[in-house]
Amino acid sequence: MNLPKEIDYTSQLPSLSNDTASISTVIMPSNGSSFSPSSTIFLDLPSQHFIDPSTMYLRYKVNLTSAVSAEVKGTPAYTFFNSLQTTLGSNIVENIQNYNQTMGMVVNLTHSSAHKQSMAVAYGYNDPAMVTAATTQCDNLNGRICAVNEVFSLSMPLKCIISESQKLVPMFCLNGCRITLNVDSIGGVFTSAVTPTNFTLSNIELCYDSINFGSSVESMVKSMGLIYIKSQSLSTSTSILPTATSGSIDLIYNLRLASIKSVFSIFSGTSANSINKNMDSYDVTSNNGDYQYLIGNKNYPSRPLSTLNSKSCFSIENKSAVGGFHDVTNSSSISPVEYSYVGNAATTLVRPAKFYVSQNVEKLKSNGVLLSGISSQSSPINLRINSNTATAQSHNVTLICLYDALVEIDTVNNTANVKQ
Questions:
Q1: For residue 301, is the peptide bond before it cis, meaning its omega torsion is within 30 degrees of 0?
Q2: Separation of alpha carbons 380 and 256, rounded Å
Q3: Number of C-beta neighbours around residue 199 at 10 A
Q4: Where are the beta strands (DSSP E) in 254-341?
Q5: CA distances for 331 relative to 121, 266, 316, angstroms
Q6: CA neighbours within 13 Å on the CB side: how many for 253?
Q7: Other CB atoms within 10 A of residue 176 CB
Q8: What angle do helix axes 313-321 and 99-110 make, rounded to 10 degrees?
Q9: Using CA atoms, how far apart are residues 275 and 145, in angstroms rounded to an integer?
Q10: How far apart are CA 20 and CA 23, in angstroms?
Q11: What is the pLDDT of residues 195-230, one digit of tens each?
């Protein structure tokens, strides 16, 4: 007779050996202690123990040189970094361009306003004008209005192929792991309205827990030969949608991936009215058209999403693309004002444009299968836009693919590669 798990007292849970220990690990850059705009940061992870992926985060300090109250756009903790690469051994296994723009979108689509408020100190949301001796408000959940020559610290979960792994990562089986962060330019970090003279990043530390199970467990893992760890990552590409464009247009993206889970599009502004530039995302059809993806010679969705007849559904599709609209723990922080930007409307730091187009394309929404997404290896991805209203400004249209990444580790030769 099979008992319900709630009263099955015979099942035994595995136990940890006395050798097991959790070690708080802090990694500092190997190529310097302070970094200026457009510089590169190398974070070299030691080849020992197991990494607990869920504990990985980055912390650092920002020193501004400014004569005015400069404005950091987007989610400040991420905004300073425009790309991330992960190298295992000699292989670059991950290369996320537009990292700050992508992570800003992820935060907006997965964090409720309450969640943003709880992370406001870490992410750096702040407006000194809203804080007085008598009251402290948490009204600003977009960007940061910095004081003159302000010095402040930021922290963020570092989303990458290591931190997204579904199992502990055996670093002792790898001949080195390097995470490279590229610092953005002044214009990439700050709004076009108010910029500083310069900034410096210092006290940069990558933090995570290393688990030491002892030499006997590590020897068992080393004897396994080839092992596989399922993870996920993001890949991006950008096309230009010119001004005064109307009718039907296909934007083509040459991203070749084996298992795409979701696709997203950001429609950045380029005019003076779009002060957040790549952190803004407009409805380029001005409520008068539709959107559809073509991946592997199949349309997603099968019927185009219309901004004229059913614009509210884009919000539902966004939730489906990041986890499911029946998941009440998966919320967004996009207000009706932020959602409604069209044409050449003027944005502000605290009211950016946040109209994203996205689509869940998984065959089955489950972590219990190996590769649950669809393939674009045989042909490029098309974003088809039909608009009956001409674009009022040009847009840089960034396509973001969330894809399955299978990390293959050769425990005998200490090498690794990623199947994506």
A1: yes
A2: 7
A3: 23
A4: 260-269, 289-295, 298-306
A5: 20, 19, 11
A6: 28
A7: 15
A8: 110
A9: 14
A10: 10
A11: 899 999 999 999 999 999 888 888 999 999 999 999
Q: Is the whole model's pTM more than 0.85, yes or no?
A: yes
Torsional sign, CA 268, 269, 270, 275 = negative
Amino acid at 272: A
Helices (H), 119-214: 120-123, 186-189
Cβ neighbour number for residue 312 with a 10 Å cutoff: 7
Strand spans (E) along 66-148: 71-72, 81-88, 91-97, 144-145
Tell me the DSSP string of 20-31: -EEEEEEE--SS
Q: 352: closest CA among 335, 368, 365?
A: 335
Q: Is the pLDDT of residue 99 over 70?
A: yes
124 Cβ partners below 8 Å, 6+ apart?
Answer: 72, 75, 76, 77, 144, 152, 154
Residue recorded with tokens 């690469």: 85
Closest CA to 347 of 74, 90, 3, 1: 74
> What tokens were used for 45?
């992870």
**Mean pLDDT of the chain, nearest integer:** 91
Helix (H, G, I), strand (E, B) or coil at 329: coil
List C-alpha distances in Å: 287 to 212, 307, 387.
56, 5, 9
CA pair distance 55, 48, nearest whole angstrom: 16
